[in-house]
Task: inverse folding
DNA sequence: AATGAATGAGGGTTCATTCAT
DNA sequence: CATGAATGAACCCTCATTCAT
């Protein structure tokens, strides 16, 4: 993070610039710090997502990453910093994913584009639960690890702007109500999509249904799309 | 919530009947197991909500509750069981609160009643973040602590039924679209209300606004009400 | 114990005199201290024999005896004292058993009587491993629990005297060597009998045979008889 | 025994090969895992011998060994495993000692060799009570720690074979009875020697003499030698 | 920059014992 | 005397972290 621009898209935020991009791997004495860092971060994301910051074990991260313990302390200096790096790398991934989406996003009517966006967000969240688990965890710590970082903001800015444009166009063509706050709609979408997956188990118990079943997931996705679209309808 | 004793039928499993109603608190040599249990549970909810199951410290719970450590193991046998008890007692509280709400809920048009319900849920969640923190945490453990318990289901059943009735009546008088699945609307409401508070910090960072500010909370609440009502409007 | 004479033979050493011998058992509020004591002691012997003084759990003794915990502290004042009482009650039992044996012991030639004695000791030890386990344990504590007690001495005195007589008679009739120290022969017998059962598992591993098998036990018993008899033979 | 390193083939399973022979002891930051292990094992043997598996305190072992607590869990993973290692290291020592004895054992007549063997075993046991205390303790746990280990068997095999040879030769030259089972004689010897020291305190109380006195020990040793020799005499 | 070994502080849990009723 | 509730001191064990090599 820091001054490092997340230019590469998929690179980890904390990653320092390295001129030597490809070095040979030489067996035990590994000499590719970037790769090592990436492997540690991946392992860390896994473990932190599964057990939270307090529940995660440095030893386990070390085991998963297949590195020695000192590597972690050399690169990240503490468990807390490692969590921070893992968290930020998740936002990095979100940003990359969002940019990728926008690059490929289909055109067409505002309705079609909105529908597509909602489906995309729902599906992405459903298939990246590790990422949302880290984010949910961060709230337990009151966002202390992403203070002073603009990465979270940057990560979703393109999507919010995309949504703003959709709403503006929709309002212009009287498809949607005018004067809608894109951020609130973004929150609506995000809330419903993310909540579904982060609270799968307790909500299943509350609702009395297994929300992890494929048909329930599909139904929910359809409903969210329908619900958001309906709420924007100028007829209301 | 708070001191509200849940009605007899909905008490947490382990809780034994109170034998005497009022007793003094006599310093170290306390002899009121139910009260002791309740105090431990309250402390546990606090600590687990703050730091999660893994992060919570039994010593800290003990300190907050003002009891000796063995009390916890005498009454709950393990940290995990204590978490379970704390979690279930939260659902107990939710149920009690829901019943209380329904008892006092205003009548009037379906629209008015729905609006009132959403506002109530939003406000309650906003003022009981401890409870939702426990529930969010439970999802990390895949709902293992509330398996074999019907309490979560029972806790929200009255509200879902209440919502069903509102939707039915609204549809009958052509205020709402017909054929709406109350559970999905319940999820919509619940998602948006709960998500707002559980993800306050990360979403603030993402949105670039302090969502904990009173005016942001008010705005969000109004939007959720508006959004849900709109999505049900038959015009759409 | 103290001044209490172990007259009754089978009574526990520590047992205090009670005039009221038989009282009715009145359900939960049991009113027979002697019986209670005996049940606690029996449970204690079991538990101490199984796990040793340090490994035994007061809670478990309480559970086995089916009494409340305070009973133990009322009657025995501490775990250590309870162990002492259990140990002494074992010597009590040994004494009773020895007296019983001598009362019924067959007459006949010294050889026959000696043979019978050895077989009896071997069998008794084999069928009272609980007792020997306590005794073995007591050696770990350097005999501190039976200091100042003459019960151990008294418990075996009759047997040693019996053996002395056998040896004297045997020597007189030239069946055995003269001038044999009965105590050493007693030790020979006792060593071999007791060792077999107290070291069953490790010796099995050392010997490479399962010494707990019935045929191994029989073979060993026969050998011990043979060995002791041989060693006394004047021919040697 | 003591510092005698067991020959390569008979080392305790967990023991890794030493990489360097002599290194300095440099206070806190010690870097000699083998030495650390050995010191922990020595302390463990002491403590386990004194108080048994349940009674021994890991903290005390740590204190005696002068290492930090984690060292124990790093090297042995649990108190139980440490006990197992201590126990097996004792058999290691026994084996080493036995081999040492056989290497130096005097020749001469079977009688002389047998007499020498008995004396050796008696003296060794008397001077290594720590070892036998561990072994006696292991019987409380039904030999569970040496299951799947052939070390106990191997440790005494040379001695049993030595005894077999003595008996065979003695029988050939009509000094001993023919057809004697060496294992039973081994048990006779072992029983009497080991029992004397493991049951010193209770037997003293029973016999009414202080068996720890030097003259009693000498007398007992002479008697055991005499007793075993006599029992083998063909005249009987 | 990598590794195995080591550590101090504390983690959850248990235990013998006592107190209030 | 009986009981359930409570305690404080330890107990075994773990963890994030660091050091020597």
Result:
């Amino acid at each position: 993070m820091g001054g490092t621009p997340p230019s590469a898209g998929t690179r980890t935020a904390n990653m320092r610039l390295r001129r030597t991009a490809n070095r040979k791997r030489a067996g035990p004495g590994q000499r590719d710090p970037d790769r090592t860092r990436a492997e540690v971060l991946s392992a860390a994301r896994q473990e932190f997502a599964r057990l939270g910051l307090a529940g995660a074990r440095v030893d386990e991260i070390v085991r998963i990453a297949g590195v020695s313990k000192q590597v972690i302390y050399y690169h990240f200096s503490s468990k807390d910093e490692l969590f921070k790096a893992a968290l930020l790398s998740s936002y990095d991934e979100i940003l990359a994913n969002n940019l990728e989406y926008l690059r490929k996003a289909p055109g067409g009517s505002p309705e079609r584009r909105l529908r597509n966006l909602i489906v995309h967000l729902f599906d992405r969240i459903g298939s990246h639960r590790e990422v949302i688990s880290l984010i949910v965890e961060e709230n337990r710590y009151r966002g202390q690890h992403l203070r002073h970082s603009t990465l979270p903001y940057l990560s979703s800015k393109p999507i919010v702007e995309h949504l703003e444009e959709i709403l503006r166009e929709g309002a212009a063509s009287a498809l949607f109500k005018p004067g809608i706050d894109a951020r609130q709609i973004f929150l609506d979408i995000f809330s419903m999509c993310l909540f579904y997956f982060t609270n799968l188990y307790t909500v299943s118990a509350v609702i009395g249904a297994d929300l992890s079943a494929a048909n329930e997931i599909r139904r929910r996705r359809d409903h969210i799309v329908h619900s958001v679209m309906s709420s924007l309808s100028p007829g209301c």
Observations:
- Residues 57-59, 69-70, 73, 78-79 of chain C lie near DNA strand E (CB under 10 Å from a C1').
- Chain C is about 70% helix and 0% strand.
- Residues 1-29 of chain C have pLDDT under 50 and may be disordered.
- Chain C touches chain D through 60 residues (CB under 8 Å).
